[in-house]
User: Which sequence fits this backbone?
């Protein structure tokens, strides 16, 4: 189903009258990630596209939910503005997806270190509830709005609560000067630099951990790596920041200009700027989202369960992705090792989500959250007939199945 803005509300009302299952969908680029969908046709936002309003002076933009992230960045660039979010993992193969999908998954990458997450950049959203009722939360301008914070509830809702139709977000000035710094060494040496940096008055755009296999796949030494991205309005300030960092570590610092930094960032999201054609279709057998308590990241990265996986983690949040480079044979991941890895994450104050796994393997995408019963009550408030995204409810491992109407 791919309605335009005029057809949308009536279509959702009709689906509700019939009690039919359906799946809120952006551009369909990552609909297959996570728990398998049990039922329902995707309702695509492909035709709900375009910028509704950009106010450069106020640093705000409102877009329809199906607008591609890259289209928004391209429209902002002539104004020297941007949305301070990474492109998602696998963008070269799958596209970067829509703004609605981005908010529905609620995840940000390494830029969160300086710019916070997508939920902090969201200032308003419009949605359709399962019965077709239109609702709005927040506004189109940056201000406090009283009432329930539906925006944060919909960030990370995975299409389970309603269809996002429009979003308003903060924009930021594009930093005129950017630079990358790469350091490689032992986990201990890098860990002490990372801790110092996180507690310092410097504000890097990102501070990312890579493990040895990810570094080796980029043609670097097969050793743990810290990637620091600095941005400023003045070159002198960048040089000062770089000197302050160099003074804290005996490790050699490799400086990267913005274009080389962007190439490394593409590599870390599973994209290879040089790969073409068939090489692009290769997807990893496993794609895992990991979280650790940030003060335990070095301990976490040393675990034998992670051997052979490529890992990228943001140092400040402890959140990142791991994927298997080997689909089969030695180094390939077995479901049992993924379960052990989940326990390892939990022991270190974190969690593990399975986004992709090989056919035939059935590791739970996520486990029950402590707040499971509250999540289920919320689901019933928003979607009493359990029509939306059957099989997927964040924080609930096995969501209640929809009761089929007879006749
Ligand atoms: C740095 C970064 C890291 C990310 N990491 C992850 C990650 O680890 N795991 C992950 O799952 N995602 C992650 N994402 C989000 C992911 O990239 C987005 O899901 C994707 O960009 C959306 O693409 P799409 O428009 O094709 O959505 P789709 O693939 O069509 O849908 C994605 C999800 O969003 C829901 N959805 C889409 N549009 C709407 C809407 N309008 N209303 C309600 N629900 C909707 C769908 O039901 C589905 O669950 C990350 C994003 C960034 C920027």
Assistant:
């Amino acid at each position: 189903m791919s309605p335009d803005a005029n057809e949308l509300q009536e279509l959702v009302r009709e689906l509700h009258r019939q009690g039919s299952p359906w799946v809120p969908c952006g551009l369909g680029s990552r609909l297959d990630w996570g728990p398998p969908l049990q039922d329902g046709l995707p309702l695509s936002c492909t035709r709900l596209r375009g910028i509704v309003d950009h106010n450069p002076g106020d640093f705000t933009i409102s877009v329809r939910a199906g607008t591609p992230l890259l289209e928004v960045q391209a429209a902002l660039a002539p104004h020297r503005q941007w949305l301070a979010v990474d492109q998602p993992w696998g963008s070269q193969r799958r596209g970067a997806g829509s703004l609605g999908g981005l908010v529905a998954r609620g995840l940000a990458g390494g830029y969160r270190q300086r710019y916070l997450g997508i939920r902090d950049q969201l200032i308003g959203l419009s949605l359709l509830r399962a019965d077709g009722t239109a609702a709005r939360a927040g506004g189109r301008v940056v201000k406090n709005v009283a009432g329930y914070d539906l925006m944060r509830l919909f960030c990370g809702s995975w299409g389970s609560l309603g269809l996002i139709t429009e979003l308003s977000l903060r924009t930021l000035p594009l930093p005129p000067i950017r630079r990358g710094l790469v350091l490689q060494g032992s986990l201990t040496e890098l860990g002490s630099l990372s801790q110092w940096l996180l507690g310092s008055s410097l504000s890097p755009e990102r501070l990312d951990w890579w493990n040895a296999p990810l570094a080796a796949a980029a043609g670097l030494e097969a050793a743990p790596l810290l990637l620091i991205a600095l941005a400023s309005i003045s070159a002198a300030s960048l040089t000062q920041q770089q000197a302050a960092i160099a003074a804290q570590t005996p490790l050699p610092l490799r400086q990267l200009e913005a274009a080389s930094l962007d190439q490394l960032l593409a590599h870390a999201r599973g994209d290879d700027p040089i790969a073409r054609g068939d090489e692009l279709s290769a997807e990893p057998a496993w794609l895992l989202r990991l979280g650790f308590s940030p003060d335990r990241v070095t301990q976490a990265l040393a675990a034998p369960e992670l051997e052979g996986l490529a890992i990228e983690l943001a140092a400040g949040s402890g959140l990142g992705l791991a994927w298997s480079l080997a689909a089969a044979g030695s180094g390939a991941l077995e479901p049992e090792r993924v379960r052990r890895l989940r326990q390892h994450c939990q022991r270190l104050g974190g969690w593990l989500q399975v986004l992709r796994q090989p056919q035939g393997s059935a590791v739970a995408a996520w486990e029950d959250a402590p707040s499971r019963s509250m999540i289920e009550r919320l689901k019933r408030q928003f979607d009493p007939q359990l029509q939306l995204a059957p099989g997927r409810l964040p924080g609930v491992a096995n969501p209640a199945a929809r009761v089929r109407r007879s006749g």
In short: The radius of gyration is 22 Å. The chain has a mean pLDDT of 89. Residues 283-356 form a domain with the Alpha-Beta Plaits fold (CATH 3.30.70.120). The first helix runs from residue 5 to 18.
